[in-house]
Amino acid sequence: MASIAERLTQVRENIDTAMARYERAPGSVKLLAVSKTRTAREILQVAQWGQRAFGENYVQEALLKVDDLAPHKLEWHFIGPIQSNKTRPIAEKFDWVHSVDSLRLLERFDRQRPEDKPPLNVCIQVNISREPQKSGISPEKLAEVAQAASELPRLKLRGLMAIPAPEEDVQRQREPFLALREAMANLHLPELDTLSMGMTNDMEAAIAEGSTMVRIGTAIFGERYKR
Ligand SMILES: *Cc1c(COP(=O)(O)O)cnc(C)c1O
Questions:
Q1: Which residues line the pocket of ligand 1, CB cutoff 6 A?
Q2: 191, 7 in Cβ contact below 8 A?
Q3: How far is residue 96 from each of residues 16, 69, 215, 219, measured CA to CA in Å?
Q4: pTM listed for this prediction
Q5: pLDDT for 32-51, tens place per residue?
Q6: Which is the closest atom of ligand 1 to the Cα of 57?
């Protein structure tokens, strides 16, 4: 079985290959290592190979790791569903949040971000495949929420995030990613620089459509255990 180091190297090679194939500028796609359910020790193994940015989905689980690994100066991204009574630790301990899907949450994060920290980097999650009961705001509401977010002083709105409905075929995977890229362009907010899209099974399609941050768990750490 491949080691974490071998898998990480393979993921980096796959990113480079896709970037070359779709003529993406060097350095324009960042790797976020998704470490939900993984131990601090596994995270350190990945960090040892130069990976700084890690994504977590569950607040309680994440906080233990964030505190444990504080001496290593990692960059923490919250990417999971957000309950409104759990926003404070996210505002206090994380560098980025990708999964904000209401103005109410944005306003809470803005209030709760500590003054001694830089503004919290935020992506708005969009329900781009329009699936019922899925997280993310509807594309129709995006402009209003993004405009409001861009005016909150303790937040730095960076861009959009989506988790499209699963598709096997790369061409079909590209459609919602294209839609997300166009949705961001249509906001006419020139400071936005982040399209958080692409996971283990649809990374190539996301890079083809302009992803600037791929969120990869399984391909780096191996299959997840059930929680
Ligand atoms: C788990 C998760 C990922 C990583 O998924 P893999 O298929 O393991 O690469 C990416 N984004 C979000 C929001 C996740 O919850």
A1: 34, 36, 57, 79-80, 163, 199-201, 215-219
A2: no
A3: 24, 17, 13, 22
A4: 0.97
A5: 999 999 999 999 999 999 99
A6: 15
